[in-house]
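User: Teach me something about this protein's shape.
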Amino acid sequence: MSTTARALRRFERANHHYRFLEMFIVIFVVILLISNLVGAKIISLGSLRIAGLDIAIRFGGGNLLFPFTYIFGDIFTEVYGYAGSRRAIWLGFFASILMAIVCALIVALPPAPEFHEQHSYEIVLGVVPRMVAASLIAYLCGEFVNSFVLAKMKIFTKGRHLWTRTIGSTMSGQFVDSIIFMVVAFAGLQSAGVIWELIYSGYLFKVIYEAAMTPLTYWIVNRLKHAEGVDVYDVETDFSPFASGDAGVALVPIGEHFTNLESEHALD
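Assistant: First, the predicted structure itself:
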């Protein structure tokens, strides 16, 4: 078994083998890294007139892909529980730190005489460390809020009405994420008015994006649950971002319904 495979095995529950967790963690991390690379560009798609108000449609380039991380966050929490989501979040965090260090190092190294694109290189990758810092802070706060809200709502709804959990958790997580990211990434570079436009237009874009992707989320979640064979409920989970292990979860076989009595059988 490769070193990478052995490392990823640590992120699986010891008492249940998950077939697709590794694959989804890899896809999740790749999307996160790409979002950090392209996040510096501000995109403008004109404006919409709503209730007599002109609302500018402006957002960072990373917003095209970054909402997928919240969809993955929903999938991780819904299928693999808060502990599985927490592990994926930290893997993405450390991968982003590594990318920021490598980008900063490559930009700082002296270019060869025949390399004439150093200035353009610095413009594109020189802001990556700040973007990654903004992304990481917002990412950790937003993703953990998203996962926490979804896990709690899953208990409250007893596993029914998935759409309420995916949209409700995204509204909470993206609210936190949008404010933190835009302020940290663009404070001092853009005016307060531009930052505010980026916050509210980006937030609306991501929430609408999540709502539009609900059918796909339903399909993936249902397929994964049947493939993995269990449904995870965080009945007594330690929701600290720094906790380890999966004590307090209830594994309900597919086809059976969750009840509050499952907490009596939570894993210790």
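Now, about its shape. Helices lie at 3-9, 21-38, 67-108, 118-125, 128-156, 162-186, 192-212, 214-228. The chain has one domain: 3-232. If you'd like, I can walk through any region in more detail.
User: That's plenty for now, thanks!
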